[in-house]
Amino acid sequence: MASGQVVIERFHSRVLEGNRAGDPADRRVPIYLPPSYAVDRDRRYPVGFVLTGFTGRGRMLLNDNPWSPALDDRMDGLIERGACQEMILVMPDCFTRYGGSQYLNSSATGRYMDHVVEELVPFVDARYRTLPGPAHRGVMGKSSGGYGALALGLLHPEVFGAVACHSGDMCFEYCYRGDVPKALSQIQPAGGLQGWLEAFEAKRQKKNDDMLTLNILGMAAAYSPNPQAEPFGFDLPCDLETGAFREDVWERWLELDPLRLLESHADALRSMKLLYLDCGIRDEWSLHHGARLFTRRLRQLGIAHEYQEFDDGHMNVQYRYDVSLPKLARALAEG
Description:
Blueprint: E1 5-12, E2 26-33, E3 47-51, H1 71-80, E4 88-90, E5 105-106, E6 110-111, H2 112-127, E7 137-142, H3 144-155, E8 162-166, H4 172-175, H5 180-187, H6 193-202, H7 208-223, H8 247-254, H9 258-264, H10 266-270, E9 274-280, H11 287-300, E10 306-310, H12 321-333
Parallel strand pairs: 3-4, 3-7, 7-8, 8-9, 9-10
Antiparallel strand pairs: 1-2, 2-4, 5-6
């Protein structure tokens, strides 16, 4: 069986320098080169950017598992079986102190959307034999990575011409709002955000309640940054003392919900060569309801797309890449 090659690029990001969260500007970015890349030196390839979910970074996509192949092994197998055309895969590292960036620009975390669009895209085009341009460049991801894929497609159709979203964050009323009071119950006994975050970072073992609370902090850092807010430069959607919900902050979150972004950026998705979405019908964050609302609106707007539902939840769903990767490669190879 012919195998591709994974190159780990050590990339220094200018736009992430001095970010308020104190996260490093130096990142390791895995890049998968398909089997023929080393031998067919005149050939150019489409490119897929693969985004990890919350608490993930690109190298996690290469984790070896006997029942769920790493991304490079999965791609090799698809190509070997003739199920998928060859393409280059880029695995960005957009992890932050708060678990992730949602691949957005935020004064609280850094310019992660700019990092992908303005830095990684031209870097890959200059360093590797790509087919440049949005017609041959796509973005895909799961969970927060699915959100990032949609956000990049909606906001930067001049860069990405195809999107695949697996169980992406959307319909924020369902997937986030119910966890806000649960997070508050964890933060209050710690004496506030700083006390909670310092205790969390000191823990050798993170538990489910810890990750739930971190998720709310991460979303606040992405969706409601506020440079004047202490101690970390973002607003929570509730008052820390009383628990009162802050509708003005929540509205800022909703402005970045794909359901809201779709209304003002529908033409961006109309331009996509592929718009693929899926979700599990038992998603623990109710994301299947959001996906159904989103795809219904796509139908109402006459936007071509594909949508599939699977009889599973939110975790361990990498097998769905066997569906999306061939679709993405085929769309990006055309034209």
